[in-house]
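Tutorial handout. Part one gives the primary structure; part two gives the three-dimensional structure as tokens.
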Amino acid sequence: MTTFLSAGIMSCERPLPLDRLYLLNPGQSLDIGDRTLTAFRPPLFDTPATIALFDDRSGICFSSDCFGGPMPSAELAHADDVRAVDTQELRAAQLLWATVDSPWVHNVDVHKFLSTFQILRDRQPELILSTHLPPARGLTASMIDTLGSAAGASAFVGPDQAALEQILAGFEPAGGAHQPAPGSPT
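Part two.
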């Protein structure tokens, strides 16, 4: 299950079995037997091929990259609940992710951007699963507030060459000074 654009992107790597493909656009639903999955365009996304899904039976929202955030440790990245992350750290991580993964967000009309969260407000998912965040149960409203402020955030600017050189200068060679391999010229 994917979008036409996503199928095109994936087929660049290898042929897709078209008879096993189901194209689903935002606003469309798919009955998969015991539940219905409804696709929507998440408020933040990194490609026009991105869709998110509501599981109409469980009330879970699979948000794709939306709501993600880099976690301060591997332990927290694998936590069972995002509440293991300090509230302020979570907010900062989500805003950083928003400006990195959706670099266009600082250029949007704030009112139009905020209206894209309405589908989440209407559905009020109890659980949000993002590909870059521990499970978030019962935090939909506060996470919408956080991401809603991304429209006013500064654009992400990564380190430049001078910063890279400064970082590299701080590294020490592994195992001390370089030792030539036995039998190699010095």
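Part three, for discussion. The chain has a mean pLDDT of 92. The first strand starts at residue 29 and ends at 31.
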